[in-house]
Amino acid sequence: MDNASKTPLWLTASALYVSALLASVFAFVIICAADGLLEGGPTLFTSVWAPEGGSFGIVPMIAATIVISLSALALGWCVSLGCVCFVHGFGGSFASALLLSLLRVMTAVPTVVYGFASVFLLVPLVRDGLGGSGFCVLSAALVLSLLITPTMALSMESAVAQTEKSCRLAAASLGISRAQNLVFVVLPACGRWLRASALLGFGRAAGDTMIPVMLAGNAVQYPISPLSAVRALTAHIGLVLSSDVGGTAYYSLFVAGGILLLLGAGANLLFRFIRGGKDGK
């Protein structure tokens, strides 16, 4: 009570403003998604998207979102862990500092820059090497993994740095090397943070719009192979919102937004639950 009474008024007002803003956004999306379910009904949860024929199925987009996000997460998490191992066990001091600086810079690069560069660099490479148009699950997942790597790597790095600092003297007294300390002591002790970083990366990948729009191909079909052109839920919202107003196609946007909101909220709640446990236990 004493601390609460000493809180400056402007801080309290800021907290209330942000809370009210987030609550209004959540309420708007949930209410509109419920309305979209009532209006669209069973037609939304089918496999066919053909607005001219009255079919508004978004299930292939849900599948595409999950496949692209999990693929990006699998690759990005491994790269992030490799970066952390390099910084805290296997790399030199100069190279480690350079890598950390690069990761911090990458967090400020706009998503559209990754997408724009990939259209001219990665897509032709995939098209010439593996076939297809190059606009596919593989291209989107590769670039999304690049996008989420700095977020996950820096999250892992902060936990690993604290744990390594706390056990550095004990490791030195036992005569084990820095790399051995990292592999056998520090990383197992940071298991919760490593898993929490994965959830953070998944939420970031599932919520990105620009890269799926520019690289996934935007064809409404199931992702049956890495070279399949697909449309993610975020890309669907961006594309339909810019062309349609009203009708079941429009209502599908709110349902897609509600599903993305649930995915993001679920990942964040799970992240907070894992992070809220005793670190390293």
From TrEMBL:
It is found in: Cell membrane. PROSITE patterns: ABC_TM1. It is a multi-pass membrane protein. GO terms for cellular component: plasma membrane. Keywords: Cell membrane, Membrane, Phosphate transport, Transmembrane, Transmembrane helix, Transport. Its main location: membrane. Signal peptide: none annotated. Residues 62-271 form the ABC transmembrane type-1 domain. InterPro entries: MetI-like, MetI-like_sf, Phosphate_Transport_Permease. The keyword Repeat does not apply. PANTHER family: PHOSPHATE TRANSPORT SYSTEM PERMEASE PROTEIN PST (PTHR30425), PHOSPHATE TRANSPORT SYSTEM PERMEASE PROTEIN PSTC (PTHR30425:SF1). Belongs to the binding-protein-dependent transport system permease family. CysTW subfamily. This is ABC transporter permease.
